[in-house]
Amino acid sequence: MKEGDFAKIEYTGRAAGRVFDTTDAEKAKKEKIFNPRAKYGAVLVPVGKGVAVKGLDEELLNAKAGDSRTVKLAPEKAFGKRNAELVKLIPIGRFREQNVDPKPGMVLDFDGQPARIQSVSGGRVMVDFNHELAGQEVEYEFRVLGVFEKAEDKVPALAEDLVPGTKASFSAGTVTATAGEGVKKNTDFIVSKMRFVSQLFAYIPEVKRVSFTEEYEKEGKAATQ
Questions:
Q1: 150-216 domain in CATH 3.30.70.2210?
Q2: How is domain 84-128 classified at the CATH fold level?
Q3: Closest CA to 183 of 161, 169, 163
Q4: Shortest CA distance to 53 belongs to which of 166, 158, 134?
Q5: Where is 121: in which H helix or E strand?
């Protein structure tokens, strides 16, 4: 593969023998990390664009469709080394302003950053802004199901990944997409549609314009006079 290609992959990530992420729903349930709001199944990854962790991204550049590989990544190629400067003491009042009662082990979104509370003492809270896997070696087991190199192939693949049921095609710089009936009934449709459009422009440079059509029909029999 080369930078800019799209790879459709299945993967499982482990740290210290523990599964921390996977595209396999059954494996997630077995490892007790299943998230009912998460999407499971193969995912589409723009290769070399920093979407995957650095080491996995580099390994994908050397892979091809049909490959199954296991790669071990040092912290600097995974979630980074631990940084002592990212462990901070914050007045407990900052939390109480948001009606939050901080407890050790809690994971919160703090000013747009995920953070883990380490301790609470004397009116101050010790908060760790490092990734929970920072400083750890991790292992990824992955399989490449398909590779998409041309814009006309990437566009429908991205549509199927982000807005399943949407028909999309590419021609002369323009993406034409039509939402299926089932897609429009999905409560997350608007968010998914905007992610689709955003990623079209971000990862497929040939795309200059997007035309997204939604058609609706009145349910039930037509009224008669």
A1: yes
A2: Thrombin, subunit H (2.40.10)
A3: 163
A4: 134
A5: strand 113-121
How does pLDDT run along the chain (225 residues), one tens digit per residue? Answer: 999 999 999 999 999 999 999 999 999 999 999 999 899 999 999 999 999 999 999 999 999 999 999 999 999 999 999 999 999 999 999 999 989 999 999 999 877 788 999 999 989 999 999 999 999 999 999 999 999 999 999 999 999 999 988 999 999 999 999 987 766 566 788 888 999 999 999 999 999 999 998 877 776 654 444
Kindly report the pTM of this predicted structure: 0.84
Per-residue DSSP letter, 163: S
Q: Rounded distance, CA 113 to CA 100, Å?
A: 16
CA-based torsion, 202, 203, 208, 213: positive or negative: negative
Closest CA to 182 of 158, 162, 159, 166: 166
Architecture of domain 1-80+134-148: Roll (3.10)
Instruction: Name 164's Cβ contacts closer than 8 Å, sequence gap at least 6.
Output: 183
Domain map of the chain by residue range? 1-80+134-148, 84-128, 150-216
